[in-house]
Amino acid sequence: MKVWMTLWTILLALSGLSLTVLLFVIGSGCVSELKQMLHELKEHVDDAQPIGDDVRSRQESR
Amino acid sequence: MQQTNGTVTGRQIAAWVPPFQHIPEGNAMNPALFETNFTGLDWAIVAIYLSGSIAVGVIANRYVGNLSDYLVAGRTLRIRLALASMTGTELGLVTVMYSAELGFSQQFASLYLGLLELTALFAVGVTGFLVYRLRQSSVMTIPEYYASRYSDGVRVVGASVMVISGVLNMGLFLKAGSQFLTAISGLDDGLYLKWMMTGLLLLVLFYTVLGGMVSVVITDLIQFLVLGSAMVLVSGYIVYDVGWQGFSSIVTEQSAYIDPTNATNPSGQGSGIGWLVIVQMAIVIFSAALLWPPSASRILSVHSPQVAQRLYLLSSVSLLSRRALPILWGIGAYVFFTQSDGLNAAFDAAIDEGRISTISAMPLYLAKIIPAGLLGLITAGMVAAFMSTHDSYLLCWSSVITQDIVAPIFGSISQRGRITLTRISILAIGAVLLVWGLWYEVSSNLWQYMAVTGTVYLAGAFPVVAGGLYWKRASNVGAYAALIGGLLGLTAMDPVIKALNGAGIDLNAAHLSILTFAVSSILFVVGSWLCPNGNKSVEAANPGGDT
């Protein structure tokens, strides 16, 4: 029982710590990534690919 | 906070009262069970969050130029956004609810699920098994891979099984959300709550239909930050509330469930686990980590195969929190109710009357110990989680209907037409969910329902995708057989199990789920060996080249 409880305690502590660290990591850099994504999407919109272009034909042309 | 270095006696336990417990004790019919700290401030926090979500949908629509933008955000996701989006999608209200329910009924032993998932994701992150090649293939959905590796027919069949499994899987999301809001807000009015959940569903439909994957990614990010922060705060609060003495008392004095390999649940609160269930869950969790479509859509949305692999390595730890912390809340609820005789009796009585189920234990507990304000934050986070999972799932299943069922059957459809069709599918699935959520009753725990419905798709998809990527001989016949074989998983649903047991056949969901995986894999191998594809090239679908 001690082995199981040690394992579960470590698991719980690890999950709490990892979520805290992840919040800091993502929170610190997400805004710039979001801006970059929206910028690239805006360029897609401005370039406006012709409607009716099938997905597979686009992939084949790659 | 109560802390002790010695063993807690039964007398001490009876006298021990959690520091933040301030509700009156009552008899079995005491309405104190539904008493809550939820106030107008909390409602205001939730309302502000929902308004923000509408704004995101409207804004995101400006960034959707073509189908790729709509379905996979133009493949522009970098690691932080992808990680937030993947965690946001997987950290749904339903996940929190079923994990907490397991924590309440199976206590510490239920943490084996977190351990299994951690191991599975870490192994994939280190090896890149399947995900690396899948991202290299440049497909947008799993059925699209079926088409490029096998045939359009396999794509349509695979997509149809996927949609059946997926819509069934999210069929109880609305009900779980409803039970959470009922318990946490103290609104003990079924009709009112049904309207509220309908409203939430309409809200999700609104911004998903409008903004596609762009709005999904943005709302996932916000949800991750809001719910993630709330989870850390609430978990800290619960640890402080219950204290070391509280947790240790259920182990030493109340026969809490510790060892998952033991098939009998000593707490008497729910079903046992045992090796059979562990094997079932290991298979389901491993295959779901790779191929559950909403997760797979993140693999296919990221910038490169390297990012896809890295995403798994990093998410192995982040996704551990989504299971382990809610389980901690469930254990806290178990401690709370077992230490409060009056409330425990009222809780049991409400379950016997069919007013609530064990799934309500965690929100009822939080409603009593978390102060106003923080309760609003966690509710906003949970509502966000509810919507975030819904939007991802709705977009995923509807895009499968459009791309992989309708388009292959009816031929070329313009991009604008596909977006419209996807939007119509989103609305249709939403209608199905409302009806299903209202009438289907689950007799097992919610997680078992999720695992069983997921099996219908995963049992066929795993051999077909893995075989397609790593085995030259994999053929169309084998793929058809495996995918259709996955439908055997429907037999593991509650009504069928009851009928089988009634007919004297002593099988349970674990037996039938494992059987389904085995049958699908065998059918795939045998079908491929007996009926190979001939000389059809696999290079187009196997960019690694080294089969």
**What's the β-strand tally of chain B?**
0
CATH topology of chain B: Sodium/glucose cotransporter
Shape of chain A: rod-shaped
What would CATH call the homologous superfamily of chain B? Sodium/glucose cotransporter
Q: Which residues of chain A sit in consecutive blocks of at least 5 with pLDDT less than 50? A: 50-62
Give the number of DSSP strands of chain A: 0
- This entry's quaternary arrangement is heterodimer
Shape of chain B: globular
Distance between the termini of chain A: 58 Å
The radius of gyration of chain B is 23 Å
Assigned CATH architecture of chain B: Up-down Bundle
Biggest β-sheet of chain A: count, sense, barrel? none
Task: Give helix % range of chain B.
Answer: over 70%
| Computed structural class of chain A | mainly alpha
Q: Any idea of the CATH class of chain B?
A: Mainly Alpha
Tell me about this structure.
- The complex is a heterodimer of chains A (62) and B (547).
- Chain A has 62 residues and is an all-alpha fold.
- Chain A has a domain at 16-44.
- Chain A is built from 2 helices and no strands.
- Chain A has helices at residues 2-47, 55-61.
- Mean pLDDT of chain A is 71; it is low at 50-62.
- Chain B has 547 residues and is mainly alpha-helical.
- Chain B has a single domain (37-530), classed as Up-down Bundle (Sodium/glucose cotransporter).
- Chain B contains 22 helices and no strands.
- Chain B has helices spanning 10-15, 40-60, 67-72, 79-90, 93-106, 112-127, 131-136, 142-149, 152-169, 173-185, 190-252, 274-291, 293-301, 305-339, 341-352, 361-369, 374-410, 415-439, 446-470, 476-485, 494-502, 509-530.
- Chain B is globular, with a radius of gyration of 23 Å.
- The interface between A and B is large, with 42 and 57 residues.
